[in-house]
Amino acid sequence: MEKPIIILSCDVADDGRMQMRQEYFTAIADAGGIPVVMPPYVERSKIDEWVDRIGASALVLTGGADLDPQLYRERPVDGLGRVSLTRDVYELELFDCAMRRGLPVLGICRGLQVINVALGGSLYQDMPTQMGEEFGSHSREDILHEVAFTSGSELERLVGKQFVLTNTHHHQCIHRVADELTVSGTTVDGVVESVEWPEHSIVGVQFHPERMTDDSPEMARFFEEWVRMVSEKDAE
Known about the structure:
The protein is of the alpha/beta class and 236 residues long. The chain has seven helices and 13 strands. A nine-stranded mixed beta sheet has the order 4-1-5-6-13-12-11-8-9, with helices on both faces. The chain starts with a strand and ends with a helix.
């Protein structure tokens, strides 16, 4: 079975530079995929052409800056971080492009939030401001949170366990869940940590599994099983 070509979205810095943490493409490559970083095009015709020309099999929406709250019809609140209109348009168009082609999509941290907003959901713009100071612990990557996955969910299958310790590095999270998505993982304080839409091979996680593959067998398995699923779907 040929290795699947998997698109990775990139961040767009304030000076216009493309940037990405190495762990994203290392995790995909180690799991048996061929990661390809897509330039931040905002023109849909260029996105469509690029995706078709490289023969992409799946999409990973990576972490990064906050989404502009105007996308879910809200005004900014105190605590909102850096936003990038270029990246918002780029990833929303890229997600729609993948959906229309039936490509599996994995959203990580911001990527989960992009999926939720693209499908009509909303976000807490700043968890400590809008939910309480105690939720500030979710922005500290040195704190591990136990995530409970729904029994029988796709996330439980990918990880191989119903309960697992994950890292956390986010100050935003899902508020209103998009109608098409099912919550499949939460922390004890009720924060949504994973969503899925199995019929369209869409999964999203709020944590960063790509930063844990060296120390967590469950996170290494997560990518291996996801890439295997992509390969099998490719072969259909």
